[in-house]
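User: Could you write out the 3D structure of this protein bound to zinc ion? I've included everything you need below.
Assistant: Certainly. Input first, then the structure.
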Amino acid sequence: MSDDEYHRRTAITRLAVSPSDEKLLRDTIKQWKQGCQIAVDKAWERCHSKSDIQQLAYDDVREATSLSSQHAILACHQAAENIKSCISRRQNGKKASKPTYTSPTITYDSRTMTLFPEKEEVTLTTHGDHSRTRVSLVLPDEETGYQYQYFDSDEWESTESTLHYRDGGWYLHIGFRKLTQDAEEETTENGTVLGVDLGVNEIAVTSTARFFSAGELSHKRREFKRVRGNLEDRGTRNAHRALQAVSGRENEYVKHILHRVANGIVEEALRYDCDGIVFEELDGIRERLPKADWHSEWAFHRLYEYVEYKAEAEGVFVDTTNPKNTSIRCAECGSIHRKNRSTRERFECQNCGNRNHADYNAAKNVADVYLRREQQSSRRRGVSQYALKSGTVTPNRGYTPYPDGFEAESADKPHSPRANPPG
Ligand SMILES: [Zn+2]
């Protein structure tokens, strides 16, 4: 049965892992990465189908690693998928070098993982003596957790899944699938938006984890302020003229930076094939960001205008959504709590333990809130998901990695505190 006959969704859940299991899982991942690498090294520039690679590399993987037989097979299949995506990148004129396995992640299927939703547990095959270990799922309340609709469903079955270690925690991305019967259900509305959060330390952060730092701008503004202060103290007519010139230069400088940020945001939308860009509503933004010295409402409105006309020239729409709770809501599990936002930059969910840059978390929420509202709106834009660096998220349904997302996966978080958008 071909892949097209299934709908696929991913439900993410954190795992509660004991220290002894932690070591076991880490070692299993280490073996897995080695197994995938062996398979890729053998097959690269030679073959790319799952069965060919399995035939070519299976024995080597089994001999060189302590992976179970099924995981050795899956490692060969993983290599096949990654080589295929390299081939298709090359066919699209992009560069693709031989994959290397560095991300702390491992694939599971129905033979290596069993889900016990009623107990909120999962068993995972480990390396070595090929036994299994039993781990608890850390799930949000039934009200906020989108995961339950898959667990409680007769239509959805769990399928290939991935275990990830990131930010000090273990996460299981559980793949679900169901047979496609109502094909039209999803073909009409599969557009993508980019979420953008506006802020103090970062002028803007996108849901694809691009950060536009305010550092340079704030620094320059302080310099301008100092120069203006000196001129004001003098109070002469010449000084007054000079003061006006400085203010003019300052405005030009701010506009220049805002253009750069706007270009970067639109670029990001195009890179991830987005149909729209979503900001929080600008009304009242000054009250929401009281710490902002440079953030006159003017600057944000100007940024919005720049993005709007640059995006519309590219056929990308720009819209806004209500910013209520976007800064304190967990983009992963939906839990809303003041304590989630421990500092201006840090977000840590009290419910599921998700840790992230607060502005990045907010950017995802801006998109999420917009899409939920969109579903009830009469003037629909046909969008149903938002872009991350590593895949897309559909509210209530979860995460779908990009087809060749294996290399972006581990980078789905702020990778650099400063962004350098090209001019
Ligand atoms: Zn959470």
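Confidence is low (pLDDT under 50) at residues 183-187, 405-423.
User: Perfect, thank you.
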